[in-house]
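Lecture 7 notes. Example A: sequence first, then its structure tokens.
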Amino acid sequence: MKIEPIDYLCKPNYPDKYSNESRQALSSSFPKRWLKTPLVLSLSAIIALGANGCNSVPTITLECGCEPSLTAGIITNDLIVPLFIHGEGTGGIGCISIAAPVFMSEEDAYAILASAFEDAGLTLFKNTGILEDATVPLIYDSYPERWETQHADLYVHEAIGISVTFVSQRDVSRWERSIQDIDADGSIIINVSSAKSWDMKRAAEVLAKNNTSLVVFYDPVSYVVYGDSGIQSKEIFSSVQDARKASEALLRQQVIDFSEWLQSEGLIQCTIHFT
């Protein structure tokens, strides 16, 4: 191949070494949705800075989720936080149950949540106050398909200015009410059943939909069956220990989704440091 001079040199579209001198502007220009993927951020920064033909690439330190954003991340009282669904969140006893539900206690749930928040670079503060007059489910024990709402105080934790709550089987039981039917002749009919069920996920959906600046997690519920039952399900296990481990993994995944949602909304940020 013969090397010949060119008449005109096209300017490349990628940043040259002069524009790269303004590295702070470059590092803050990524779309918000990219903040959910730290690896993409790292690779993009390396490509952008290495494409200028320099012999060396700067060292990049990536910090994610450590601090609330000082720009777009202002927590407001009308913030709507979606429910992050992982796990069926239901359990029952009696004739309706084919496997025994393994419920999560509130203390165990807090320990798991605190650990998962720490892994995400956030701090969960325990029992920080009461959300007064919150909208909570009203559940009729004799009519599980009938759900309404009521107002009650809700004990909450707190993280980056957002109230945090966990819906347990105990909470659902507390929000239940007994109801009596009146027959045509005026006599009272009392409904008695050996079956009992709790739906933590549905209760969490009611809380998330009707309360602002509140993030709701719920007991995912795993199940245990002793012996060879022939039941095939990813949430059914042969020991209580395995069922608890599965529920812990599902609850941690709820926190991961919450952390990624915070990043996508700009409420926490990934910061790139160049050295």
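Example B, a different protein, same format:
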Amino acid sequence: MPNACNAPPTPTKASRALSMFLKGNRITMEDAAKALDCAWSTLDDVAKGQKRPRVALALRIQRWTGGKVRYEDFLTGPERSAVARQRPFKSSKQSKQAA
């Protein structure tokens, strides 16, 4: 009987998109890993939703897939919220001009 410890991971939006991109374009995991300059096992874990890629790999995946897999889709809910709360930088000069 499965429990939380050995239950299969829930694929993320990004991992599903990556898997679909690879299958749809008939790209092997080995070829994708070479193109993305990462280990096959790392990319396999990312595509299965077992691991999240580091930012550099997530950005390479986005660029390599032409935006079909977005780096933002690898973020967790709290991470997405934190990014959304950020305001653009305004220098003190810009602040004075706005007033």
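Note on Example B: The two ends are 64 Å apart (CA to CA). The longest helix spans residues 13-24.
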